[in-house]
């Protein structure tokens, strides 16, 4: 009984593991006819006989239009599926799809959509301690094979060292076709044609090490002592099989289904996807949900996330009942950073760019309603000043801040809205992130000194000990109510700073 229980322990703290359910439509109703080809995922009835893989492919090829007779089917037939469902991915024009839809055995077609990519303290926060208790009794996940459909991973990362990890079970049928494997990393395949196995994004390295990374002592963010401790996944004794289905931050559904197909054949126990669309579809209109149903029917636990949006009604987008839907969670620690003002007061916030010995030099403070989102231009009087801005959580703002800090700004103080709270991301500039209530004090103070650039002090950091009851700030307001805890979270690669609150009954 211990291993199944550990599987649930593995999965609940994992952040943004899967966020799928993009909308799909039957054939292409009401679409404008086009002579250009595009990729479709086609479902067909299975062959009448219990045919092998080659026979299945031939059956799938029989649906291809005769216009493909003079060209290699390999260039148009992208993937052939037998485990997730009977079907294939193919490039077709609208006219070719119309012709295919009239053939006996055709079921339906979905446009091949593009999905988006969605802590040293986590085990301790969950009550897992090395050498004792439930973690030890469950063997740290020994023998469990976790398959991830993601951006690949860095096989040389210390989280994937196999010290203390037993060989994979004999039932394992997978292989390593694109990376150096060991007893920890037992599967590595790329389903992206012409793409090498690796992890340019770092996303798959993050998710797989969170799930089953081995013990790594002395870990901290950039060696600066932030989050220092022993990093480990929730199942450090488990095996990892990575199926690369994303490249250049693009994850095509057809490649995701091909990865799912391979994972089922290889014999994984758990499947985790860190991908997602931004629209809701009914179960029968989501090809990945359909494929996941096949995986579940074969005894594989498929885990997906509640989503990163909200809070609002219907913000849980992954509601298929056969999926284990997981929301991002938070921990009971933070990384405090305070802005020390010229009047002797300070504004508490958080930051990930902490220095062991921060400078005590003061800088002018600059707040502009016109540039309140940090949309300053380089050379616009920002050199040597600490900018006060309203956070937007957008990539555009992050890029803009990097640019203006590089142009000479001394630092940035971001005030998030109520939903975002103190949530901060990995930043390579001097910063502090605070909540909206702090802004109620600083903004009027800044306006009072407008035109005189008040002496704003410096951004200093200090260690923060874990709280007995975690604070109620974070990026995601909880989706779940009543006795299930409200969930918040924010994460960086290899570790996260988190917090939670219990919802009143």
UniProtKB/TrEMBL annotation:
<keyword id="KW-0325">Glycoprotein</keyword>
<keyword id="KW-0378">Hydrolase</keyword>
<dbReference type="Pfam" id="PF00082">
    <property type="entry name" value="Peptidase_S8"/>
</dbReference>
<dbReference type="GO" id="GO:0006508">
    <property type="term" value="P:proteolysis"/>
</dbReference>
<keyword id="KW-0645">Protease</keyword>
<dbReference type="Pfam" id="PF05922">
    <property type="entry name" value="Inhibitor_I9"/>
</dbReference>
<comment type="similarity">
    <text>Belongs to the peptidase S8 family.</text>
</comment>
<dbReference type="InterPro" id="IPR034197">
    <property type="entry name" value="Peptidases_S8_3"/>
</dbReference>
<dbReference type="InterPro" id="IPR036852">
    <property type="entry name" value="Peptidase_S8/S53_dom_sf"/>
</dbReference>
<keyword id="KW-0732">Signal</keyword>
<dbReference type="InterPro" id="IPR037045">
    <property type="entry name" value="S8pro/Inhibitor_I9_sf"/>
</dbReference>
<dbReference type="InterPro" id="IPR023827">
    <property type="entry name" value="Peptidase_S8_Asp-AS"/>
</dbReference>
<dbReference type="InterPro" id="IPR010259">
    <property type="entry name" value="S8pro/Inhibitor_I9"/>
</dbReference>
<feature type="signal peptide">
    <location>
        <begin position="1"/>
        <end position="18"/>
    </location>
</feature>
<protein>
    <recommendedName>
        <fullName>Peptidase S8/S53 domain-containing protein</fullName>
    </recommendedName>
</protein>
<feature type="domain" description="Inhibitor I9">
    <location>
        <begin position="40"/>
        <end position="118"/>
    </location>
</feature>
<feature type="domain" description="Peptidase S8/S53">
    <location>
        <begin position="141"/>
        <end position="366"/>
    </location>
</feature>
<dbReference type="InterPro" id="IPR015500">
    <property type="entry name" value="Peptidase_S8_subtilisin-rel"/>
</dbReference>
<keyword id="KW-0720">Serine protease</keyword>
<dbReference type="InterPro" id="IPR000209">
    <property type="entry name" value="Peptidase_S8/S53_dom"/>
</dbReference>
<dbReference type="InterPro" id="IPR045051">
    <property type="entry name" value="SBT"/>
</dbReference>
<dbReference type="GO" id="GO:0004252">
    <property type="term" value="F:serine-type endopeptidase activity"/>
</dbReference>
């Amino acid at each position: 009984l211990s291993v199944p229980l550990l599987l649930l322990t593995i999965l609940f703290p994992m952040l943004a593991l899967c966020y799928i359910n993009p909308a799909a439509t039957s054939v292409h109703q009401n679409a404008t006819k086009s002579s250009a080809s595009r990729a479709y995922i086609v479902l067909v009835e299975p062959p009448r006989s219990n045919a092998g893989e080659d026979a299945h492919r031939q059956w799938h090829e029989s649906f291809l239009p005769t216009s493909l007779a003079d060209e290699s089917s390999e260039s148009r037939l992208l993937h052939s599926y037998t485990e997730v469902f009977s079907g294939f991915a193919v490039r077709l024009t609208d006219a070719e799809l119309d012709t295919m839809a009239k053939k006996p055995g055709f079921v339906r077609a979905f446009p091949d959509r593009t999905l988006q990519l969605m802590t040293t303290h986590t085990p301790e926060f969950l009550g897992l301690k090395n050498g004792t208790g439930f973690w030890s009794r469950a063997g740290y996940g020994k023998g469990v094979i976790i398959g991830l459909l993601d951006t690949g991973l860095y096989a040389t990362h210390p989280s994937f060292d196999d010290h203390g990890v037993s060989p994979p079970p004999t039932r394992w049928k997978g292989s390593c076709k694109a990376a150096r494997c060991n007893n920890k990393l037992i599967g590595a395949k790329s389903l992206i044609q012409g793409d090498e196995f690796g992890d340019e994004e770092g996303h798959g390295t993050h998710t797989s090490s969170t799930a089953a990374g081995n013990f790594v002592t002395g870990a901290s963010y950039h060696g600066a002592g932030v989050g220092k401790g022993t990093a480990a996944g929730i199942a450090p004794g488990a095996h990892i099989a990575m199926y690369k289905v994303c490249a250049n931050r693009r994850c095509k559904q057809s490649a995701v289904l091909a990865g799912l197909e391979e994972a089922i054949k290889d014999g994984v126990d758990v499947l985790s996807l860190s991908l997602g669309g931004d629209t809701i579809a009914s179960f029968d209109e989501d090809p990945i949900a359909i494929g996941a149903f096949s995986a579940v029917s074969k005894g594989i636990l498929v885990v997906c996330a509640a989503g990163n949006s909200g809070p609002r009604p219907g913000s849980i987008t992954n509601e298929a009942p056969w999926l284990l839907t997981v929301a991002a969670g938070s921990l009971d620690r933070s990384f405090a950073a305070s802005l020390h003002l010229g009047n002797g007061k300070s504004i508490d916030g958080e930051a990930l760019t902490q220095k062991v010995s921060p400078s005590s030099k003061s800088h002018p403070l600059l707040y502009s309603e016109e540039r309140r989102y940090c949309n300053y231009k380089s050379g616009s009087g920002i050199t040597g000043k600490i900018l006060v801005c309203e956070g937007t959580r957008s990539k555009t703002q992050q890029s803009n801040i990097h640019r203006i800090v590089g142009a000479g700004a001394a630092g940035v103080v971001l005030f998030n809205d109520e939903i975002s709270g103190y949530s901060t991301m990995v930043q390579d500039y001097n910063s502090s992130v605070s909540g909206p209530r702090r802004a109620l004090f600083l903004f009027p103070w800044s306006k009072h000194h407008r035109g005189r650039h008040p002496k704003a002090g410096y951004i200093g950091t200090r260690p923060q000990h874990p709280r007995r009851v975690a604070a109620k700030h974070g990026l995601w307001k909880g989706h779940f109510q009543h006795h299930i805890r409200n969930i918040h979270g924010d994460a960086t690669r290899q570790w996260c700073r988190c917090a939670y609150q219990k919802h009143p009954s």
